[in-house]
Amino acid sequence: MSLQRFINQALSDWMKGGRPDEDIVISSRIRLARNLTDIPFPMIATREQLEKVVSKMEKILERSKDNQALGNLELLRMEDLSSLEKKVLVEKHLISPLLAEEARAGAVILSENESISIMLNEEDHLRIQCLFPGFQLEAAWTQANSIDDWLEMNVDFAFDEKRGYLTSCPTNVGTGLRASVMVHLPALVMSKQMNRILPAINQLGLVVRGIYGEGSDALGNIFQISNQITLGRSETEIIEDLGNVAMQLIEQERQARKQLLESSRVQLEDKIFRSYGILANARVIESKEAMQRLSDVRLGIDLGLIKGVSSTIMNELIVLTQPGFLQQYAGQMLSPDERDVRRAKLIRERLLTT
């Protein structure tokens, strides 16, 4: 396994189909924040101290390389990656923009199928992430918990009997758990029901963000929903609460799709097939428009209106059409205008091969 494999392997497991409720839930993620007891938090630690975190993890990986349960894991240092390579890993949701742009002595441990990502020296010493396709919160939690147990056998985590796991940000103190689902909700957006749903979700202690998390936009009607509270609640309670809300959203989105078909079928078909026509023929397309058109096409596929196109096309192209990937495949830096041309070409070719 090598860095180039992670960059060149376009499709991570979370982008692939055949998973529970995949028509609405694109992916499920569990993230655990952990810090080592004998090293200051990253924001105040020296580079030398942060290098110790990476060295500790390298030794742990070496001792565990034959562990069948963990699979093949590889550590990549941020300083060894180009800015473009880091951008590609961000676009694949394997590392955060913070790790890519600002972390000192930053690194990431990746599994071969990219379902496991352990960021080192981001906001905390360790950010354990498990990313699964479709609605699989429980499965993602099971894997994350096993990784957490494995690490605790090798290092001492900063832990307080009353407060739980200690983290750089007070909002992560307690379990240190962030659970999230990435959902595609075009019908709720079209019917303007999201304006009512979002405040209700916030009142339940959950937060709604865009496709790349905090500070990002909900491009292509894709939203990330995650817990806000980590203190005073168990991991099981957090996951169950998020899972219950996700199930309600799934049901509401399906009902909204049914109502749109019944009340505005011609207008809905027109919107979907216009977007398909543009994607199949455009020579230039910006990222924001591409995301919206892909959302329309994916809705058409899920409703059975568009035949012969893979339902995973949106999962794939939301990554493949991002600036980092476009430039990686071009083998050179591209201007925004050049990226728009290549994005249109890539989408045309992908539609023709499904």
Automatic annotation (TrEMBL):
One of its GO terms (cellular component) is extracellular space. The keyword Kinase applies. Residues 24-256 form the Phosphagen kinase C-terminal domain. Pfam families: ATP-gua_Ptrans (PF00217). A motif (RDXXRA motif of the pArg binding pocket involved in allosteric regulation) lies at residues 339-344. ATP binds at residues 27-31, 93, 127, 178-182, 209-214. Its EC number is 2.7.14.1. Appears to be allosterically activated by the binding of pArg-containing polypeptides to the pArg-binding pocket localized in the C-terminal domain of McsB. Keywords: Allosteric enzyme, ATP-binding, Kinase, Nucleotide-binding, Transferase. It catalyses: L-arginyl-[protein] + ATP = N(omega)-phospho-L-arginyl-[protein] + ADP + H(+). GO terms for biological process: phosphocreatine biosynthetic process. The keyword ATP-binding applies. Belongs to the ATP:guanido phosphotransferase family. Catalyzes the specific phosphorylation of arginine residues in a large number of proteins. Is part of the bacterial stress response system. Protein arginine phosphorylation has a physiologically important role and is involved in the regulation of many critical cellular processes, such as protein homeostasis, motility, competence, and stringent and stress responses, by regulating gene expression and protein activity. NCBIfam families: PRK01059.1-4, PRK01059.1-5. This is Protein-arginine kinase. It comes from Caldalkalibacillus thermarum (strain TA2.A1).
